[in-house]
Amino acid sequence: MTEDKCFIDIFKILMSNGKKSSPRGQEIIELENFNCLFKPYIRFMNFKVRKLNLDYIKKEFLWYLKGDKFDTSICDYASLWQNLVDEDGIINSNYGQYIFGSLNQFENVIKILQKDKDSRRASIIILQPYHLLSEKKDIPCTYAINFRIRNDKLNMTVHMRSQDAIYGLGNDLPTFSFIHEMVFIYLRDTKYDNLQYGDYHHIVDSFHVYKKHYGMVNKIIDGDTYSHIDCPNINNINEVFCLLNQIHRDNLVISLKDHQFLFYDWLLT
What we know:
about 270 residues; alpha+beta; about 20% strand; globular
């Protein structure tokens, strides 16, 4: 299935089977218990009418990689984040703090799958009880990410409580796909030589589109112009280390002539 058809089919299902609802007084068309599958490297909802901001997607992912729950620098690139900074200075929807932060659930996933190839425990938990038990300005939309190796393929499942089909999916899909690829390369280069990059299963309790975007969705369904975005693959374990440590490749103690970090360079451009 081509990239554009993947997204068009998603929007057709949403608009055909979804029902109207108005959480917090904002009308939406909502599809409950939505699920779909993304093949490797399907990442960018780059329809002309959608006006995908690739520069922002790169900056958001680099922000996540820092894993710093007190880092509010993302507000310089998207003003909506400013309203989500809590009284303690934390943005709860900074997924990096749960994935790459002090708990280092990313590294835990690696250790679990290195120890047991068939494990079902390689999960990263994002939504926490304290988010819901107190009056937070911002509640993460993602419950968890799970990784499994089956038939020598690393598959990933992302389970979300809520997602906006236009800006939510458009920005989240690249991020989760990049993380999937990082885990894949890490495991391939350290443990399982024959490992392949598997499927991304996406599950959302409330998958929806806001009323202001109905026209945009219908234009996409009707065949709006779609452009492919070239994104380099992550090359090897050293590039993963480079991403995890947020350092320039010149500072790595390796021979640069033997290693090309095209993905990391792409993120920085």
